[in-house]
Amino acid sequence: xxxxxxxxxxxxxxxxxxxxxxxxxxxxxxxxxxxxxxxxxxxxxxxxxxxxxxxxxxxxxxxxxxxxxxxxxxxxxxxxxxxxxxxxxxxxxxxxxxxxxxxxxxxxxxxxxxxxxxxxxxxxxxxxxxxxxxxxxxxxxxxxxxxxxxxxxxxxxxxxxxxxxxxxxxxxxxxxxxxxxxxxxxxxxxxxxxxxxxxxxxxxxxxxxxxxxxxxxxxxxxxxxxxxxxxxxxxxxxxxxxxxxxxxxxxxxxxxxx
Length: 258
Ligand code: NDP
Ligand code: 8X3
What we know:
single chain, 258 residues, 7-stranded parallel sheet, binds NADPH dihydro-nicotinamide-adenine-dinucleotide phosphate, binds 2-hydroxyethylsulfonic acid
Protein backbone atom coordinates (compact mmCIF):
# COMPACT_ATOMS: atom_id res chain seq x y z
CA UNK A 1 0.00 0.00 0.00
CA UNK A 2 1.37 3.46 -0.95
CA UNK A 3 1.71 6.07 1.70
CA UNK A 4 -0.81 8.81 2.32
CA UNK A 5 -0.50 12.17 0.65
CA UNK A 6 1.06 14.97 2.71
CA UNK A 7 -0.16 18.53 3.33
CA UNK A 8 2.11 21.07 5.06
CA UNK A 9 0.05 23.82 6.72
CA UNK A 10 1.53 27.00 8.18
CA UNK A 11 -0.56 28.39 11.05
CA UNK A 12 -2.38 25.17 11.97
CA UNK A 13 -2.97 26.14 15.60
CA UNK A 14 -6.21 28.07 14.95
CA UNK A 15 -8.84 29.12 12.45
CA UNK A 16 -8.52 28.22 8.77
CA UNK A 17 -5.27 26.28 9.15
CA UNK A 18 -6.64 24.11 11.95
CA UNK A 19 -9.90 23.41 10.09
CA UNK A 20 -7.87 22.46 7.02
CA UNK A 21 -5.64 19.93 8.76
CA UNK A 22 -8.73 18.40 10.38
CA UNK A 23 -10.46 18.01 7.00
CA UNK A 24 -7.40 16.52 5.30
CA UNK A 25 -6.70 14.19 8.25
CA UNK A 26 -10.30 13.03 8.13
CA UNK A 27 -9.64 12.09 4.49
CA UNK A 28 -6.49 10.11 5.31
CA UNK A 29 -3.84 12.65 4.44
CA UNK A 30 -0.78 12.86 6.67
CA UNK A 31 -0.29 16.38 7.94
CA UNK A 32 2.57 18.68 8.89
CA UNK A 33 1.22 21.15 11.43
CA UNK A 34 3.08 24.34 12.31
CA UNK A 35 2.71 27.47 14.41
CA UNK A 36 4.27 29.35 17.29
CA UNK A 37 1.97 28.05 20.06
CA UNK A 38 3.61 24.76 21.00
CA UNK A 39 0.95 23.66 23.52
CA UNK A 40 -1.72 23.89 20.80
CA UNK A 41 0.44 21.88 18.39
CA UNK A 42 0.92 19.12 20.97
CA UNK A 43 -2.82 18.94 21.65
CA UNK A 44 -3.73 18.96 17.95
CA UNK A 45 -1.17 16.29 17.09
CA UNK A 46 -2.55 13.92 19.73
CA UNK A 47 -6.13 14.59 18.70
CA UNK A 48 -5.49 14.02 14.97
CA UNK A 49 -3.49 10.84 15.52
CA UNK A 50 -6.08 9.35 17.89
CA UNK A 51 -9.16 10.36 15.92
CA UNK A 52 -7.99 9.65 12.37
CA UNK A 53 -5.01 7.28 12.75
CA UNK A 54 -2.88 9.33 10.38
CA UNK A 55 0.73 10.50 10.74
CA UNK A 56 1.35 13.98 12.09
CA UNK A 57 4.61 15.93 12.13
CA UNK A 58 4.51 18.96 14.38
CA UNK A 59 6.97 21.82 13.78
CA UNK A 60 7.10 24.74 16.17
CA UNK A 61 8.50 27.83 14.43
CA UNK A 62 7.82 31.40 13.40
CA UNK A 63 7.48 31.90 9.63
CA UNK A 64 9.10 35.34 9.96
CA UNK A 65 12.40 33.84 11.07
CA UNK A 66 14.38 32.77 7.99
CA UNK A 67 16.96 30.84 10.03
CA UNK A 68 14.22 28.82 11.76
CA UNK A 69 12.41 28.18 8.49
CA UNK A 70 15.66 27.01 6.83
CA UNK A 71 16.46 24.72 9.77
CA UNK A 72 12.98 23.19 9.79
CA UNK A 73 12.86 22.51 6.06
CA UNK A 74 16.47 21.32 5.77
CA UNK A 75 15.94 18.91 8.66
CA UNK A 76 12.63 17.48 7.46
CA UNK A 77 12.79 13.71 7.96
CA UNK A 78 13.07 11.77 4.68
CA UNK A 79 9.53 10.35 4.95
CA UNK A 80 8.11 13.88 5.17
CA UNK A 81 9.95 15.42 2.22
CA UNK A 82 7.46 14.33 -0.44
CA UNK A 83 5.02 17.18 0.15
CA UNK A 84 1.91 17.14 -2.04
CA UNK A 85 0.42 20.44 -0.87
CA UNK A 86 1.94 23.44 0.88
CA UNK A 87 -0.77 25.65 2.39
CA UNK A 88 0.62 29.11 3.10
CA UNK A 89 -1.97 30.20 5.62
CA UNK A 90 -0.10 31.78 8.57
CA UNK A 91 -0.98 35.44 8.53
CA UNK A 92 -2.68 38.29 10.27
CA UNK A 93 -4.04 41.80 10.18
CA UNK A 94 -2.84 44.20 12.89
CA UNK A 95 -4.65 47.47 13.42
CA UNK A 96 -7.47 49.03 11.42
CA UNK A 97 -7.32 52.81 11.25
CA UNK A 98 -5.94 55.69 9.23
CA UNK A 99 -2.60 55.11 7.55
CA UNK A 100 -1.18 58.32 9.00
CA UNK A 101 -1.85 57.18 12.58
CA UNK A 102 -0.80 53.53 12.25
CA UNK A 103 1.75 51.79 14.45
CA UNK A 104 4.72 51.14 12.18
CA UNK A 105 5.59 48.00 14.11
CA UNK A 106 2.22 46.53 13.03
CA UNK A 107 3.31 47.02 9.43
CA UNK A 108 6.57 45.21 10.04
CA UNK A 109 4.76 42.23 11.58
CA UNK A 110 2.18 41.99 8.76
CA UNK A 111 4.71 42.29 5.96
CA UNK A 112 7.15 39.91 7.63
CA UNK A 113 4.44 37.29 8.21
CA UNK A 114 2.04 37.60 5.28
CA UNK A 115 4.62 38.31 2.59
CA UNK A 116 8.11 37.31 3.68
CA UNK A 117 6.99 34.23 5.63
CA UNK A 118 5.07 33.00 2.59
CA UNK A 119 8.10 33.69 0.40
CA UNK A 120 10.51 31.82 2.68
CA UNK A 121 8.21 28.79 2.86
CA UNK A 122 7.56 28.68 -0.88
CA UNK A 123 11.20 29.26 -1.81
CA UNK A 124 12.40 26.42 0.39
CA UNK A 125 9.67 23.89 -0.35
CA UNK A 126 9.34 24.40 -4.12
CA UNK A 127 12.75 22.74 -4.85
CA UNK A 128 11.52 19.63 -2.98
CA UNK A 129 8.40 19.64 -5.15
CA UNK A 130 10.48 20.04 -8.31
CA UNK A 131 12.70 17.14 -7.23
CA UNK A 132 9.65 14.98 -6.51
CA UNK A 133 8.03 16.03 -9.80
CA UNK A 134 4.79 16.90 -8.04
CA UNK A 135 3.37 19.58 -5.79
CA UNK A 136 0.77 22.23 -5.25
CA UNK A 137 1.22 25.55 -3.44
CA UNK A 138 -2.02 27.01 -2.10
CA UNK A 139 -1.89 30.52 -0.66
CA UNK A 140 -4.53 32.04 1.57
CA UNK A 141 -4.80 35.59 0.32
CA UNK A 142 -7.97 37.67 0.87
CA UNK A 143 -10.49 39.91 -0.81
CA UNK A 144 -8.23 42.54 0.79
CA UNK A 145 -5.76 41.49 -1.94
CA UNK A 146 -8.32 42.45 -4.57
CA UNK A 147 -9.77 45.68 -3.18
CA UNK A 148 -8.30 48.29 -0.85
CA UNK A 149 -10.63 49.54 1.88
CA UNK A 150 -10.39 52.40 4.38
CA UNK A 151 -8.04 51.56 7.24
CA UNK A 152 -6.77 48.45 5.40
CA UNK A 153 -3.59 49.98 3.84
CA UNK A 154 -0.72 47.66 4.77
CA UNK A 155 -2.85 44.54 5.37
CA UNK A 156 -4.33 45.06 1.89
CA UNK A 157 -0.87 45.73 0.46
CA UNK A 158 0.42 42.49 1.98
CA UNK A 159 -2.41 40.54 0.36
CA UNK A 160 -1.98 42.35 -2.98
CA UNK A 161 1.62 41.13 -2.76
CA UNK A 162 0.39 37.58 -2.15
CA UNK A 163 -1.82 37.90 -5.23
CA UNK A 164 1.15 39.03 -7.34
CA UNK A 165 3.39 36.28 -5.96
CA UNK A 166 0.80 33.60 -6.74
CA UNK A 167 0.74 34.77 -10.35
CA UNK A 168 4.54 34.96 -10.49
CA UNK A 169 5.07 31.52 -8.97
CA UNK A 170 2.52 29.99 -11.34
CA UNK A 171 4.60 31.22 -14.29
CA UNK A 172 8.01 30.20 -12.99
CA UNK A 173 6.83 26.78 -11.78
CA UNK A 174 4.89 26.07 -14.96
CA UNK A 175 7.53 23.92 -16.61
CA UNK A 176 7.65 21.70 -13.53
CA UNK A 177 3.87 21.33 -13.46
CA UNK A 178 3.69 22.57 -9.87
CA UNK A 179 0.21 23.97 -9.34
CA UNK A 180 -0.34 27.32 -7.62
CA UNK A 181 -3.71 28.42 -6.29
CA UNK A 182 -4.84 31.47 -4.36
CA UNK A 183 -7.89 31.46 -2.13
CA UNK A 184 -9.32 34.89 -1.37
CA UNK A 185 -11.90 34.86 1.41
CA UNK A 186 -14.11 37.66 2.65
CA UNK A 187 -15.26 37.65 6.27
CA UNK A 188 -14.43 34.39 8.07
CA UNK A 189 -15.24 34.12 11.76
CA UNK A 190 -11.96 33.09 13.43
CA UNK A 191 -9.54 34.74 15.84
CA UNK A 192 -8.53 37.05 12.97
CA UNK A 193 -10.45 40.07 14.29
CA UNK A 194 -9.40 39.42 17.88
CA UNK A 195 -5.78 39.53 16.73
CA UNK A 196 -6.39 42.55 14.49
CA UNK A 197 -8.02 44.48 17.36
CA UNK A 198 -5.32 43.33 19.79
CA UNK A 199 -7.51 41.33 22.14
CA UNK A 200 -10.52 43.70 22.17
CA UNK A 201 -13.27 41.04 22.22
CA UNK A 202 -16.16 43.46 21.94
CA UNK A 203 -14.77 45.17 18.86
CA UNK A 204 -13.83 41.84 17.32
CA UNK A 205 -17.26 40.28 17.78
CA UNK A 206 -19.07 43.27 16.22
CA UNK A 207 -17.35 42.36 12.95
CA UNK A 208 -19.51 39.23 12.78
CA UNK A 209 -22.73 40.61 14.28
CA UNK A 210 -26.05 40.29 12.49
CA UNK A 211 -25.11 38.12 9.52
CA UNK A 212 -23.73 34.66 8.81
CA UNK A 213 -19.98 34.96 8.28
CA UNK A 214 -17.98 32.22 6.60
CA UNK A 215 -16.53 29.56 8.89
CA UNK A 216 -12.97 28.25 8.90
CA UNK A 217 -14.42 24.97 7.64
CA UNK A 218 -15.85 26.73 4.56
CA UNK A 219 -12.32 27.78 3.58
CA UNK A 220 -10.89 24.34 4.41
CA UNK A 221 -13.47 23.02 1.96
CA UNK A 222 -12.10 25.37 -0.74
CA UNK A 223 -8.58 24.14 -0.06
CA UNK A 224 -9.83 20.56 -0.33
CA UNK A 225 -11.56 21.31 -3.63
CA UNK A 226 -8.44 22.90 -5.14
CA UNK A 227 -6.16 20.12 -3.88
CA UNK A 228 -8.27 17.24 -5.16
CA UNK A 229 -8.83 18.22 -8.80
CA UNK A 230 -7.33 15.86 -11.40
CA UNK A 231 -3.62 16.52 -12.05
CA UNK A 232 -4.28 18.38 -15.32
CA UNK A 233 -6.58 20.92 -13.60
CA UNK A 234 -5.25 23.95 -11.74
CA UNK A 235 -7.67 26.17 -9.89
CA UNK A 236 -5.93 29.53 -10.32
CA UNK A 237 -7.98 31.36 -7.74
CA UNK A 238 -11.09 31.26 -5.65
CA UNK A 239 -12.83 34.38 -4.35
CA UNK A 240 -15.31 33.45 -1.65
CA UNK A 241 -17.51 35.66 0.51
CA UNK A 242 -20.45 35.08 2.82
CA UNK A 243 -23.76 35.36 0.95
CA UNK A 244 -24.23 38.52 3.02
CA UNK A 245 -21.12 40.11 1.47
CA UNK A 246 -20.74 41.27 -2.15
CA UNK A 247 -17.16 42.56 -1.89
CA UNK A 248 -14.87 44.42 0.53
CA UNK A 249 -17.30 47.36 0.68
CA UNK A 250 -20.78 45.87 0.65
CA UNK A 251 -22.06 43.68 3.45
CA UNK A 252 -25.71 43.32 4.45
CA UNK A 253 -26.78 42.59 8.04
CA UNK A 254 -30.03 40.76 8.78
CA UNK A 255 -31.76 43.96 9.92
CA UNK A 256 -31.22 45.50 6.47
CA UNK A 257 -32.38 42.54 4.39
CA UNK A 258 -35.27 43.18 1.97
P1 NDP B 1 -6.34 32.98 13.12
O1 NDP B 1 -5.85 34.12 13.92
O2 NDP B 1 -7.47 32.16 13.64
O3 NDP B 1 -5.13 32.01 12.74
C1 NDP B 1 -3.89 32.51 12.30
C2 NDP B 1 -2.86 31.40 12.28
O4 NDP B 1 -1.62 31.93 11.77
C3 NDP B 1 -2.59 30.82 13.65
O5 NDP B 1 -2.48 29.43 13.56
C4 NDP B 1 -1.23 31.42 14.01
O6 NDP B 1 -0.50 30.51 14.80
C5 NDP B 1 -0.58 31.56 12.64
N1 NDP B 1 0.49 32.56 12.63
C6 NDP B 1 0.35 33.91 12.75
N2 NDP B 1 1.57 34.48 12.75
C7 NDP B 1 2.47 33.47 12.61
C8 NDP B 1 3.88 33.43 12.55
N3 NDP B 1 4.63 34.53 12.62
N4 NDP B 1 4.50 32.23 12.41
C9 NDP B 1 3.75 31.10 12.34
N5 NDP B 1 2.42 31.08 12.39
C10 NDP B 1 1.78 32.25 12.53
O7 NDP B 1 -6.76 33.64 11.70
P2 NDP B 1 -7.34 33.00 10.34
O8 NDP B 1 -7.43 31.54 10.41
O9 NDP B 1 -8.55 33.76 9.99
O10 NDP B 1 -6.20 33.47 9.33
C11 NDP B 1 -5.52 32.58 8.47
C12 NDP B 1 -5.21 33.30 7.16
O11 NDP B 1 -6.43 33.66 6.53
C13 NDP B 1 -4.41 34.60 7.30
O12 NDP B 1 -3.43 34.63 6.27
C14 NDP B 1 -5.46 35.68 7.07
O13 NDP B 1 -4.90 36.86 6.56
C15 NDP B 1 -6.35 34.99 6.05
N6 NDP B 1 -7.69 35.51 5.91
C16 NDP B 1 -8.56 35.55 6.98
C17 NDP B 1 -9.84 36.06 6.81
C18 NDP B 1 -10.80 36.17 7.96
O14 NDP B 1 -11.79 36.93 7.82
N7 NDP B 1 -10.62 35.48 9.05
C19 NDP B 1 -10.31 36.51 5.50
C20 NDP B 1 -9.32 36.43 4.46
C21 NDP B 1 -8.08 35.94 4.66
P3 NDP B 1 0.40 30.88 16.08
O15 NDP B 1 -0.20 32.11 16.71
O16 NDP B 1 0.33 29.67 16.94
O17 NDP B 1 1.76 31.10 15.53
C1 8X3 C 1 -9.66 39.43 6.07
C2 8X3 C 1 -10.92 39.92 5.46
O1 8X3 C 1 -12.09 42.02 4.56
O2 8X3 C 1 -11.25 42.06 6.86
O3 8X3 C 1 -8.68 39.26 5.09
O4 8X3 C 1 -9.74 42.19 5.00
S1 8X3 C 1 -10.98 41.62 5.47
